[in-house]
Amino acid sequence: MKVPFVHYTLFLAIVLYGLPGHAQHKNRVTATLRGEDHTITISQQFSYTNQSQTGLNVLYFNDWNHSYSSKKTALAKRFGEEFNRSLHLAKDKNRGFTEITSIVDKDYRGLEWERTEEREIIRVTLAETLEPGASIDLFFTYDVDLPSSRYTDYGHGYMGGYYLRDWYLTPAVFDKEWKLYANKDLNDLNTEITDTEIRLNFPKGLHLATNYEVVTLTNISISNHAYLTAKNRKNCQIVLTPEKRFTTHATSFLTVTTDIEASKYDKTSQGISIDRVANFIERNLGHYPHKNLLVAEVDYARNPLYGLGLLPSFIRPYREQFQFEMKFLKTALYNFVEETLFLDERKERWVHDGIVNYLMIKYVDEYYPDQKFTGKLSKVWGFRSYNLAQMHFNEQYYLLQMTSVRRNDHQPLSTPNDSLTRWNQKIANRYKAGLGLAYLGEYIGYEHVDNSITEFFEEFKLKPHVNALDMERILKKRSEKDINWFFDEYVALRNNIDFKIKKVSKTEDSISFTIKNKTGSKVPISLFGLQKDSIVSKYWFTGIDTTSSFTVPNNGENRLVLNYDKKIPEVNQDNNWKSLNGFFSSNKKLQFRFFKDTENPYYNQLFYVPEFKFNVNDGLSAGVSLNNRPFILRPFSFDIKPRYATKERSIVGSANLTKRQFFNEGKLNFISYSLSGGTSFFDERSRFTTITPSINFVWRPEDFISNRRQFMFFRVRNVFRNIDENIIDQIDTEPDFTVFNLRYGDIDNNILRFRSWIVDAQVAGDFSKVSFEWEQRTLFDNNRQLNLRLYAGKFITNNSNSDFFSFALDRPTDYLFDLPYLNRSQNATGFTSQQFILAEGGFKSIFDDRFGNDWILTGNLSFNLWQWLELYGDIGGIKDQDERARFKYGYGVRLNLVTDFFELYFPIYSNNGYEIAQPNYGERIRFVVTVSPRILTGLFTRRWF
């Protein structure tokens, strides 16, 4: 668009600021923050110098404040992928947007500009080509309407004031090509380095803290005025709060402005800790080149040390000094690196994360070498014997990073920041990067890694367009060993690391053994020789593609252990050791643990957990779950759950054995092989037992952020029933039967648009049938949600004389015993009989003629009237063999409190008539409730993986 009008303020800016005469970009911002409508009026002069070798006809500017403006932006879509509807449902007054009035050049010519597809990127067309080395002055006038801080902490409302970040226009980076990145709440804005002056007027009663230098801060009659400057900086952060939260600490190493505090740690001690941290940072990264380092609580809250924050603050088991220093250190390191090392964080964030987390590990090793992960809890009776209690604090990095690996959700360190899953972006990849540098330090010597980091900062501090190759070059120069594996394997690939010792033999003078590389990852592996618990030898071995044999001197070792110090992030450490005292001495002992523990490679661990369940048929059943599952998944797992059913006074329960085979390449994510069995009661003195071998194939897209999954599930369901004589005449089928079941599904689980379809085929002695289920849930821009479902089923053959295997409109018989019914009796009455499970016909009204042994075709619809209040409708037909089809319908009100987990249905009208006016209406109300801990856990963790 072209705007010929030039504001008077722009004219003054041109007169006052003049023309730039340096190669550095110059940025001058005059801004007024209005508290009544949370809007900033900005006049901005930007002097852009073409530092490339290419003539430029267009310039691009980042306007990330505009990323809150609609439901179609990359930010809103990112929120949806993480099951966060807050930005989609936001009211217009809480959204942020930027309204540009004019963009002109030094000759007062209005320039053509437009927003790109990303919306928060502005494309400015120049009147003439900007040649290499030449400069141009651009003048912008615009209003910034700040978003509510409830979405990303940025905007208005933070601590009763404002947190301003990415709030004015900044130049996009041109490095042979334009780097245009949308805001995805990743704190990775890529912008050119500028010399900046900011004149900010803001309401009285607010206190200012900033990462820029405060030249003057004055109170005038109606507002406050701040004059801020910065050289060789990126964007300006400003925190405005009604209370004075920030204090400034001038250490011998750098000046820090912070609001990070510890309530039980006195101010003097906090100052001493800050001085220690500042000293550590300068020793490892060099001198901070700016006047002031902002270390804000809000930055820590967005990027906490997750291991430190696992427990509530009132029971956190760490000393206040340690807790304060770790919190301050992590925030200070991230801000220090961000303010001095100008990497493309969208593409090469791992370098930033690796340096920060490597130094976090080093700090604990240096100042707190005996710190346990569980702190004071490691000495508590009953817990201190746990492997978790004995873990060093730094072992949390391995534990949390391996959570992603054991799910086969891990991604290469080189993956762009916006292509990482939330867990990997926030935790796993950051920790893997730090562990990687520690691994490298163990292999080539920590002094080489330390010196490389220091040199990297000295050479590239405040320089534009730094990249990972610069770091790689320095590390290789300082290493005396070949470290190509680190960049080619550890950084670039998602291959796991897993080595195993085989075929150990010894003589009086030597020990011979074979090491097997189980994953093919071409990385070095360490071997330790132990005499009891003392290390007597250590070796490094490289170049092991599959298996390699080695011989080392016999120094009296009685045990060989790979990766004994756990510096290498192996996927499996259970196979890392071999005893040299004979076969029987190498057998692992059995170790019982209550609830869970971390893995202990020297024991076969068995965990036991109390198990309680309730249903009408069993009554309250209590027992124990015996399993081999530690905190992170294992490829092979088993779970045995015997329980005593109080109503039937008998043993019920289940057992499951599962082996998972993961795939690193291609879309096939894993194959699981299972053998499961279970037994329970379905009526008085009537028991069912199932034995089921199964295979499940699961595919995921190459885009790991996508919530789409495809699966093919094959099982053989064997059902055995012991039926009480009093109800034997109600059973028209054979008590025992076998069903071959093949199911294929495609599910895209997105909170804004859920889509799925499943084809199910079953073959048994008395019948064969096929069914198709399609479902879609769409949240529209007007915040109306529409839920649609279609179910169709057809018997191919049916020789059954009962409706036990028939399709059902509203309450399937569940002959395969898959559904979590609270009451499985065919004659169920009372409250539990009103349980609704969305299966087959999906009708909420209850019909006497619900079954059909030929075909079924139904549709279910619902849409919301207000938040969780919805109207639903069911329609369809069902048919018995040799009879006419029956048409069915019904509608009512749905309280969709938590979809699929807690819902209520109130039928209004159906083929039964006006149900709401009929007697005993309370018995017609249907409910959905989920009490399974595993399913409920999935509700809260789905946004992470």
Q: Mind explaining what this structure looks like?
A:
The structure is a single chain. This protein is an alpha+beta fold and 945 residues long. The chain contains 13 helices and 47 strands. The strands form nine sheets. It has an 18-stranded mixed sheet that branches. Strands 4-7-2-1-13-16-15 form a seven-stranded mixed sheet, with helices on one face. α3 (267-285) crosses α5 (320-340), α6 (345-367) packs across α9 (422-444) and α8 packs across α9 (422-444). The chain is globular and about 90 Å long. It starts with 7 loop residues before the first helix and ends with a helix.
Poorly predicted sequence stretches spanning 5 or more consecutive residues: 1-23
Average pLDDT level = 92
Gap between N and C termini: 42 Å
Percentage of residues in helical conformation: 10-25%
CA-based shape: globular
Count of DSSP strands: 47
- The structure class reads alpha+beta
Query: What's the total helix number?
Result: 13
Sum up the structure in keywords:
alpha+beta
